[in-house]
Amino acid sequence: MGRSFDELVAEARSAPVDGWDFSWLDGRASEERPSWGYARLLGDRMAGASAALDIQTGGGELLAGLPTLAPVTVATESWPPNLALAAARLRARGAAVVADDEEPRLPFRTGAFDLVTSRHPVETWWTEIARVLRPGGVYFSQQVGPRSVFELAEFFLGPLDGSARDPRQAVAEAEAAGLTVTDLRAERLRMEFRDVGAVVYFLRKVIWIVPGFSVDRHLARLRDLHELIEAEGPFVAHSSRFLIEARA
């Protein structure tokens, strides 16, 4: 017999959610990865860069895992727990971490970088990115696409407008900022949540899926979800991702 609703929720409610490491979910949830392999492609571009900026780096996990960093590598982050993690991880790799809020302007001089990157940015500041890139420099990013994990969001919130984060809009905004888009790819990817604790942990960590989520506020729907998973198996959702590369 599986663990009870209360046991699963209590465990997930107390788990730390700092950083951008999802290993707590191993065996309890899964998500397909985009076919393009962002980390590998980022590593290739980083190896050829002289000065690189990673915006909204999270806990620095991705950069810290790359084989090579640019001779000058800088990362920004705004959330204090992630900032401390990123600084600790990236200092050993010779990279600087700058505390920055989630509003432009980027605190760097014009033309400072030949590579600017971001994975899953909350918002893309196209005009500022174009400003800090050198002529011929590249912006390379994997982003959340439209209607990502909407099956889960709508389970708690009801029907939602899924028009935001359209890759075509990203292209239009990049071009309006003076950049030339050289690559654009998009995929929808299967996700499975195998117990309600995995859902609680995920929603505590990925806070924009169900804004204002808390166990107490959503307790009734969490019980419904637990019963659904017990009866029918894993809850299935789909993440949406797109890759965009643009040149100054």
From TrEMBL:
Gene3D superfamilies: Vaccinia Virus protein VP39 (3.40.50.150). Residues 53-140 form the Methyltransferase type domain. Keywords: Methyltransferase, Transferase. GO terms for biological process: methylation. It comes from the Bacteria. One of its GO terms (molecular function) is methyltransferase activity. InterPro entries: 23S_rRNA_MeTrnsfrase_RlmA, Methyltransf_11, SAM-dependent_MTases_sf. PANTHER family: METHYLTRANSFERASE, METHYLTRANSFERASE TYPE 11 DOMAIN-CONTAINING PROTEIN. This is Methyltransferase domain-containing protein. The lineage of its organism: Bacteria, Bacillati, Actinomycetota, Actinomycetes, Streptosporangiales.
